[in-house]
Amino acid sequence: MSVLALQEYEFERQFNEREAIQWMQENWKKSFLYSALYAAFIFGGRHLMKQRAKFELRKPLVVWSLSLALFSIIGAVRTGAYMVYILTTSGLKQSVCDQGFYNGPISKFWAYAFVLSKAPELGDTFFIILRKQKLIFLHWYHHITVLLYSWYSYKDMVAGGGWFMTMNYGVHAVMYSYYALRAAGFRVSRKFAMFITMTQITQMVLGCVVNYLVYEWMQQGQCPSHMHNIIWSSLMYLSYFVLFCQFFHGAYLSNSTRKALKAN
């Protein structure tokens, strides 16, 4: 693949992706340990907080959400620049099947930053537990499975990763910005929350489409992946699609229907 005619920052240029990929190949199973500790915190934390007063934690939550928003915005811009370049110069198939996302200029750092970020992102749930807010299955199921799948896939540099990561960066850029505004006390339109959930649902549909393309082109020997990865990824995206649709219906459509009936 030709060298990208895109401006790199020094830290991106100096990043050693070979060491990062090797580390992940040797340590990716630690994601199961982190997931187990996370699950233990959820159930143990909820039990401990049952008889305790909730923590306010508004300022730390603003800092937390704003930090993840800025990280996601920058990640979306940098990986998006790479994906746009590949799409416009080499086409859709190359953008899906190209492994250059893992070791190419600009994107190689942000690919690794993405998979590593799935561990600290578990901290979202700490605020929910300590502030005694409602914790839904979708929230912690999503956190655990994304962590496991991201670490599992990065080590193999599987096709489709550029699309998966760039989409997730983009959705999280909007989502964490929304969380930061809410935590800071700003009144945000309900339509913004609906828009975020709709983008998440769209992301799941596109994820399934990318998996289909990887499978089709893998049969032609042009997409570096394997069936186990495609199966797990497809099951993950399909389950997210169902859960996010259920959430959208319960959070927005059901309430709207009740209000409309009352108005009549």
TrEMBL record:
Listed InterPro entries: ELO_CS, ELO_fam, ELOVL6
Class in the EC hierarchy, top level: transferase
Family named by the database record: Belongs to the ELO family. ELOVL6 subfamily.
PTM per Swiss-Prot/TrEMBL: N-Glycosylated.
Pathway(s) of this molecule: Lipid metabolism; fatty acid biosynthesis
Source organism per UniProt: Chiloscyllium punctatum
Name of the protein in question: Elongation of very long chain fatty acids protein 6
Membrane-spanning intervals of the chain: 32-49, 61-85, 137-154, 160-181, 193-215, 235-253
Membrane topology: Multi-pass membrane protein
E.C. designation(s): 2.3.1.199
Stored PROSITE patterns: ELO
GO CC annotations on file: endoplasmic reticulum membrane
Main subcellular location of this protein, as a coarse class: endoplasmic reticulum
Pfam family, one: ELO
Domain of life: Eukaryota
Catalysed reaction equations from the record: hexadecanoyl-CoA + malonyl-CoA + H(+) = 3-oxooctadecanoyl-CoA + CO2 + CoA; dodecanoyl-CoA + malonyl-CoA + H(+) = 3-oxotetradecanoyl-CoA + CO2 + CoA; (9Z,12Z,15Z)-octadecatrienoyl-CoA + malonyl-CoA + H(+) = (11Z,14Z,17Z)-3-oxoeicosatrienoyl-CoA + CO2 + CoA; (9Z,12Z)-octadecadienoyl-CoA + malonyl-CoA + H(+) = (11Z,14Z)-3-oxoicosa-11,14-dienoyl-CoA + CO2 + CoA
